Structure prediction request, 152 residues.
Amino acid sequence: MYLLNSAVISDTSTTKLYRLGERRYTLDRTYGTREWIYVQMKGGAIAVGEGVMQENGTDLFQVGKHAVTTPNARMVGVAAHAIAENSFGWVLKDGRGYCASDGTTTADTIQATAASGRFTDGTAVTSENGVWALETESPAGAGGLFLALIHF
Prediction:
């Protein structure tokens, strides 16, 4: 297991500092062990809590904001910080973290992807997207963040 300094997680760069798809782990008293994956943003910037997926027609781990409302095997992770278009950075692949709500997040529910890049209440049948809400969004409504278990 390769550990990454927690301070490096929020670093972004316009030049590639690690191999795309490289995975690292952080250990944290609050969130426990978390797995991160190194990506390049394509097709727009990403905000805190928004989901990212493999972008069509790009190299592996060149990702964009997810813009689908159905389960999708191309999901890569959730942004823990903003990453500008064409920049490189780390996204949360597995562990506890914050996700952005599309306005309907109920605690203790599986979350479906929304076309906005955010997440919304779903069902296990239609949304195998790897996000389980641990709390209701705050502030309430679209864009509010909620603590979740993330697993992609």
In short: The mean pLDDT is 83. The CA atoms of residues 46 and 83 lie 5 Å apart.
